[in-house]
């Protein structure tokens, strides 16, 4: 019986992915760029089980919810189609992200699952191939295949994968202001935004131009430009999300207070920029030497944690018959 275990980490985007050009292939409306973190890994084992009639999925020691199990099963169907296999699998996953911090992400989950499943089903894939495969599970997972800074090209099915890009040294200060479940999933909110926001087209055009500017800023090692573009891009994403009908507001007053404090820090000469994903929590982007000072200043607004660049997805172990 073939089995493989892989580990992957979540990522935080500096240019956000919001909206799909193709739902089936998970092709994004625009490219994006992120930092894979050195914290909160997901470790996933895929064990082929010829005796099993269907796939099973256990998360942190308990059977996962039916919708999650079905999503894992659909991903494995795609792997089996490519591998020419009809064998079911037992999947078990351990996620080390604190509940509700917004980091128990599908990015780390599907990057680990893609890496483990490719090995267990005998699909020999390089990093670009694994990134394309992970993308089919969850778009942002394409980026968690890659260590550190990753640029995910919008591309087509063949060319839409993430690859590493050099950039300035940075740390992120995660400020968790609210641990409750988000009201609307990213997938559903993206769909609603694309279908109902009058600004969606402008968002996609602006995201591509932010990505070009961000790529140049990364290559130049220009922390200030990276931070400015990231903050502006994050606020534009939240603006387009809020413009959906019915509206979706992920940022709350407590998160906005973190944006305010980050701006106040800049006025004082401590350079930090803010970003936020599809949830209430905010992340400050800082130079490594400033991380502890910024974390101390933001600690009054939520639970803070400093994180840095982390490894790409990798196999931890493999077993063959
Ligand atoms: C990002 N997010 O770039 C953006 C910013 C959330 C806000 O990628 O439908 O879970 O599985 O492809 O990858 C969240 O989207 O969506 C996301 P699917 P995914 O990080």
TrEMBL record:
What are the alphabetically sorted keywords of the record?
ATP-binding, Lipid biosynthesis, Lipid metabolism, Lyase, Nucleotide-binding
Single GO molecular function: ATP binding
For this protein, the record's SUPFAM superfamilies field holds:
GHMP Kinase, C-terminal domain (SSF55060), Ribosomal protein S5 domain 2-like (SSF54211)
- Could you tell me the EC number(s) of this protein? 4.1.1.33
Q: Name one GO biological process term.
A: isopentenyl diphosphate biosynthetic process, mevalonate pathway
PANTHER family, per the entry: DIPHOSPHOMEVALONATE DECARBOXYLASE
Instruction: Please name the NCBIfam families in this protein's record.
Output: mevDPdecarb
Recorded family membership: Belongs to the diphosphomevalonate decarboxylase family.
Q: What is this protein called?
A: diphosphomevalonate decarboxylase
The organism that produces this protein has a lineage beginning with: Bacteria, Bacillati, Actinomycetota, Actinomycetes, Micrococcales
Gene field: mvaD
